[in-house]
Amino acid sequence: MIRAEHLEKRYGDRRALRPVSFTLDRGEFLVVTGPNGSGKTTLLRLLAGLAAPTRGVLSVGTERSRVGYLGHESLLYGELTAIENLDLYGRLYRVPERRERIGMLLERLGLWDVRGERVAAYSRGMRQRLALCRALLHDSDLLVLDEPFTALDAEAAALLDGELGRLLEGRTLVIATHDPDHVAPYATSQLPLVAA
Fold it and tell me: May I ask the CATH architecture of the domain 1-62+141-196?
């Protein structure tokens, strides 16, 4: 699914990601770890097609529309409700039976009761859960999650824990986290990065 050879990213003179090489087969789960400033977010943005490498080779074995991405920004519209946000993304990704899929995701991630409220009124944890729904909506081949447990309360973290096993069914998963032990039971490999 992913082949990276001496992959590096710079912004001018500033190095954002030291050269890194790895391969990841379909259905595997890679955990990316490292201190702040090590390039975890940069690597995930490269994998999701949101940035281009400065040097090296990156090959992702699926088209960009088949990549689900959860970053630090929720990519949600605050003036829209949860249903309206997901319906918009569902139409953009041409999700078949999107209304049923939206309902199922909102129910599974504990947002069904607030589906009609504007996202601007949501807590940070609720927005994080809705952003995860957005990333999962189009049933991607590759799921790239940057610190998905950020701002989640214990209940929401438990819901995400429960989803991880289900997410691995027929999908490749890459997660950046400061807490690799949390996802260790599911991981097939780990990529430790050093400060850039």
Answer: 3-Layer(aba) Sandwich (3.40)
